[in-house]
Each structure stands twice: as structure tokens, then as C-alpha cells.
Specification:
Blueprint: E1 19-23, H1 24-38, E2 42-46, H2 61-65, E3 70-72, H3 77-89, E4 93-97, H4 108-115, H5 118-121, E5 131-137, H6 152-156, E6 162-164, H7 169-181, E7 186-191, H8 194-197, E8 199-203, E9 215-218, E10 223-227, H9 230-246, E11 250-254, E12 257-259, H10 263-273, E13 276-283, H11 288-299, E14 309-313, H12 323-326, H13 330-342
Parallel strand pairs: 2-3, 2-4, 4-5, 5-7, 6-7, 10-11, 10-13, 13-14
Antiparallel strand pairs: 1-8, 6-12, 9-11
Helix pairs in contact: 1-7, 3-4, 9-13, 10-11
């Protein structure tokens, strides 16, 4: 799958300062390096992070900052989340790693019933807002059932936490630093296929990107397309295909933050184009595309030229050898564009 992924590098704004070439995992490493250097309370912990982690996102940080600030935990996701909550409550900036998003479920109770509700249940006397939980997510071409899942919709249903998924290295660094500095618990999901496939010139210094705003990546007038993470790269290619083969101008929006999500930007675009396609790797039923579709039909009903199209994973466990058929690839998305235009 990595060889089939078409990644289009982006350019950072000039006011972000000096840049250097980084892939996605290096940009995440750079963000955590900045956090550790600028915040003496910041700590990083998780399974195997001391030697760099299975994807090398924390490589070199333990050597640079010491084993008291970058350290391994037992193989216990519930414990990692609970420890992170405790650290944040006591005033530390806690950066926890769940080795794969597929294994975040044992920590679900700690995240949903403790982290998300800590401030509310104490009447704002206490909080664990300086907790960020990182986890690699999504398809990688050979991950099968337990190393390919996209669990963002589970957490979008939980008031009190923010859910963020970047589309590339520049976005990853700016959004991760924003999560680390945010006063609310954040879940930061990293599309693992992009760790090495996505390469850009990333600002070397400290910068943040907003956790409240979607971004119009490609402007258009006929169809609005919404995605996040790896799927943004898929829909970039679909934009080109639609223009070349159909003469259709597509507007592509990267949601970036799943919760809270920027409905205003999506509604404004759909009122202009009259058509909407939402695509994600997670299964169709109960996926976050359904929330977007529901909001759009309520807010844009008189402007819609066709029913909202959702192109998603199927309602099955994530397959191994059948992964190419499961994925919401460019061809499935292109067919949805044709359906929208011909309705």
C-alpha cells in the first residue's frame, strides 16, 4: 500500500522560521523534543519508548533528557492511561504513547470515565488537561486485524477530550505541540503509513496549529470532499482525477480535529458546492462521516443537489489479504464523485 500512496509535500508558512527535511515520525520526534526542552515538567512514557519505540518516534530523547523524563512502562494500556492522568493532575505535562491504536481499548475506561470527566466532576477544582495520548492508527498494507484500526469515532462521542489526526509532517508537529500545550486531554492519532512515506521541510522550532479549525486544502466549486489523516492524500489524487476525467472541480477539506470538529467550514463549502463526499478508513456504520452527514443535511438541506456520499471501510473486522478491497481507495471515491454529479 505504501508504494500506491501518492503523497504531495506541503510548504510551511515562512513566518514559522527555519525548516529541515523530516518525515512524519521525525516531525513527531521534533515536537516532543521541543516540549521536553521548553517544559521542565514534560515527561514521555509508554511501551518501549526509552529505546525509541517501534516506529522510532522517541529515538534519542531518553539519551538527551534522561530516564526520569523518557521511560518505559509495563505492557498495560490501562496503567499507562491511569498513570498519565495522575501525572497530569499533579501538574506534569504527560505525553503517553499507546503502541498501536488498536490496543487503546483496555484504557477506554480510564480515558472516558476519568480523563474526560475529571474537570467536570470536580467543578473545575482539578483537571488532567495536560495529558496527551499518542497512538499510531490506520492501514499500513499488512497490519490485518490488530494493527490497522482507526478508532477516532469511539472517542468523538466523549465530551471532555480532543481528538486530532494529522495529514503530514508539518501538520503533525504543529498539531501535536498544540495538543501538548492544550488545557484539555487530547488523543493524537498518527497515520502509521505516513511515518516514512510523508516527507516535508518542517520548521525546526516551536510552533502550533489550531485545534479548532479545519483547513481547505484544495479549493473547488462542484463537490466538497472531507477527510482526515491518510485519506486526505487519497482525496488529493481524486481531485485531480475528477478534474481531468470529468471536468469536475472538487474542494478538499482536512478536518484535522475530529473533536471538536469545524462544522462551520464544512457547511460553508457545501452551501457553495451543493454536494458532499466524506471518506474514512474506519467502518461505515457509526463512523464520524455519519455525524458530518447528519449535520450537513440539517444545515444545508436547501442547497444540496444530491444525497451525501460516504466512502468508508466496510462493517467487517479489518482484513489482511482483502485489505485492498476494504480500503476507501481513489477508485471507490471517484465512483462516488460520478454518482454525486449524475444524481
Amino acid at each position: 500500500m505504501a508504494s500506491a500512496l501518492s503523497y504531495v509535500p506541503e510548504t510551511a508558512p515562512s513566518d514559522f522560521g527555519e525548516t529541515t527535511k523530516m518525515n512524519l515520525f521525525q516531525s513527531i520526534n521534533s515536537a516532543m523534543d521541543v516540549a521536553l526542552a521548553t517544559d521542565p515538567t514534560a515527561v514521555i512514557f509508554g511501551e518501549d519508548v526509552a529505546f525509541g519505540g517501534v516506529f522510532r518516534c522517541t529515538v534519542g530523547l531518553a539519551d538527551k533528557y534522561g530516564k526520569d523524563r523518557v521511560f518505559n512502562t509495563p505492557l498495560c494500556e490501562q496503567g499507562i492511561a491511569g498513570f498519565g492522568i495522575g501525572m497530569a493532575v499533579m501538574g506534569a505535562t504527560a505525553i503517553a504513547e499507546i503502541q498501536f491504536a488498536d490496543y487503546i481499548y483496555p484504557a477506554f475506561d480510564q480515558i472516558v470515565n476519568e480523563a474526560a470527566k475529571y474537570r467536570y466532576r470536580s467543578g473545575n477544582l482539578f483537571d488532567c488537561g495536560r495529558l496527551t495520548m499518542r497512538a499510531p492508527c490506520g492501514a499500513v498494507g499488512h497490519g490485518a486485524l490488530y494493527h490497522s484500526q482507526s478508532p477516532e469515532a469511539f472517542f468523538a462521542h466523549v465530551p471532555g477530550i480532543k481528538v486530532v489526526i494529522p495529514r503530514g509532517p508539518i501538520q503533525a508537529k504543529g498539531l501535536l505541540l498544540a495538543c501538548i500545550k492544550d488545557d484539555n486531554p487530547c488523543i493524537f492519532l498518527e497515520p502509521k503509513i505516513l511515518y516514512r512515506a510523508a516527507v516535508e521541510h518542517v520548521p525546526v522550532g516551536d510552533f502550533t496549529l489550531p485545534l479548532t479549525s479545519a483547513e481547505v486544502v484544495v479549493e473547488g466549486k462542484d463537490v466538497t470532499m472531507v477527510a482526515w489523516g491518510t485519506q486526505v492524500q487519497v482525496l488529493r489524487e481524486v481531485c485531480n482525477m475528477a478534474q481531468e476525467k470529468l471536468g469536475v472541480s472538487c474542494e478538499l477539506i482536512d478536518l484535522r480535529t475530529i473533536m471538536p470538529w469545524d462544522s462551520e467550514t464544512v457547511i460553508k463549502s457545501v452551501n457553495k458546492t451543493g454536494r458532499l463526499l466524506v471518506a474514512h478508513e474506519a467502518p461505515l456504520t457509526g463512523g464520524f462521516a455519519a455525524e458530518i452527514a447528519s449535520t450537513v443535511q440539517g444545515e444545508c438541506f436547501l442547497h444540496l443537489e444530491a444525497p451525501v456520499e460516504r466512502v468508508c471501510g466496510y462493517d467487517t473486522p479489518f482484513p489482511h489479504i482483502f485489505e485492498p478491497f476494504y480500503m476507501p481507495d481513489k477508485w471507490r471515491c471517484f465512483e462516488a464523485i460520478k454518482k454525486l454529479i449524475n444524481y
